[in-house]
Amino acid sequence: MKTVFITGTSRGIGKALAQLFLKNDFFVIGTSTKGVADFAHENLIMVQLDQTDSASIERCARSAADLGKKIDILINNAALWIEGDYEKEVDIFILRKTLEANLVGIVDLTERLIPLMNENGHIINVSSRQGSFGYITAMFTTSYSISKAALNMYTRALAYRLADRVTVSAIHPGYVKTDMNEGEGELEPEEAAKDIYELALRDVDTGKFWYKGEVFPW
Ligand SMILES: NC(=O)c1ccc[n+]([C@@H]2O[C@H](COP(=O)([O-])OP(=O)(O)OC[C@H]3O[C@@H](n4cnc5c(N)ncnc54)[C@H](OP(=O)(O)O)[C@@H]3O)[C@@H](O)[C@H]2O)c1
């Protein structure tokens, strides 16, 4: 049985992803800030993770190591968008908190999990087209976009570093009806999850940014 580690499985895209992997006979290590989810499965274990808290990140990685399982797929899905993060000004509190959660915490966790990854594993960073340099729109969100652009660069750097043993990808999941968008969007979480699931299992070139199965510009 293969193992997938997915962050942010309490709701939204992460929950749909966890349920899809469970349906397809994966062992799932999921996370939420409280360490619980409103669904259970014999092949699901939930771990507490707050990406803004280095002690929580360390504990989470240790819990994963203690399971004694190698990780085949790591999906860095958890992220936040803070109310008030718009294009008009930069709120430094929002910027710091967003970068802690959406960048520093993800890098910290990933670096701790890399030694647990199987050869030929796949790391997927759930990014956003808002992190793409070519995608500046009226909906631009400064801190969130900066965090996703930086996550994209981490994807590139990690792909270069792990080239001979682990594939590293970034993906834009689409505009999805989740709490992050107050329920608005074009896709159901299950549709976005299917896209990420298919990428996770595909044999793709490392270091690419994906959207709907196609390479998307950085
Ligand atoms: N929805 C969209 O249209 C859209 C578009 C582009 C990209 N994305 C990306 O897709 C991913 C999933 O988004 P979503 O829409 O499913 O979001 P969501 O419904 O708001 O769910 C966010 C998940 O992340 C977890 N989380 C939040 N803050 C955290 C923190 N500080 N530390 C650890 N975990 C934390 C939450 O856990 P708790 O339940 O414990 O708070 C929850 O499980 C994110 O990376 C997002 O940026 C979404």
UniProtKB/TrEMBL annotation:
A Pfam family this chain is assigned to: adh_short
Q: Name one GO cellular component term.
A: cytoplasm
User: Is-annotated flag, keyword NADP?
Assistant: yes
- Single Gene Ontology MF annotation: oxidoreductase activity
Give a yes or no for keyword NADP in this entry. Answer: yes
What keywords sit in the KW lines?
NADP, Oxidoreductase
Question: Which InterPro entries would you find in this protein's record?
Answer: Fungal_SecMetab_SDRs, NAD(P)-bd_dom_sf, SDR_fam
User: Record's superkingdom?
Assistant: Bacteria
Family under the similarity heading: Belongs to the short-chain dehydrogenases/reductases (SDR) family.
Enumerate the PANTHER family for this protein. NADB-LER2 (PTHR43544:SF7), SHORT-CHAIN DEHYDROGENASE/REDUCTASE (PTHR43544)
Q: Which named protein is this?
A: Short-chain dehydrogenase
